[in-house]
Amino acid sequence: MVGWRLRERARPRDRSSDNTKAFRGALLAVAGGCEVLVPAGTFRTAPANLTSNVVLRVDGVMRAVENRSAFPKIAVSRAASPA
User: Hey, where are the domains in the chain?
Assistant: First the structure.
């Protein structure tokens, strides 16, 4: 069962549009269990979290936004090489 169709709030025609707010809103709207449909088209988004029991069905294309500040920085530690 589709609980949310991304096209209702997002703009796929403009390939530079940032659809993060619509995408995150759709995921929050179905939190706890349902489906989010990303229809045909190209959608740009920053990272978002999928919760348990949420299905993400992508019929279109999802691309990352070009704004690097939208992505969290993750600290990576390097393990010592085995001797």
Answer: 2-67
Phi, psi of 80 (to 5 degrees): -65, 140
What tokens does 66 get? 């070009």
Find all residues with CB under 8 Å of 48, minimum gap 6, and list them: 20, 23, 24, 27
Q: Identify which of 24, 72, 22, 77 has the alpha carbon closest to the alpha carbon of residue 48.
A: 24
pTM: 0.69
Q: Residue 81: is it exposed, middle or buried by C-beta count within 10 angstroms (0-12/13-18/19+)?
A: exposed
DSSP 29: H
- From first to last of its 83 residues, the chain has per-residue pLDDT tens of 556 666 655 555 556 788 888 888 888 888 888 888 888 888 888 988 888 888 889 998 888 888 888 888 888 877 766 66
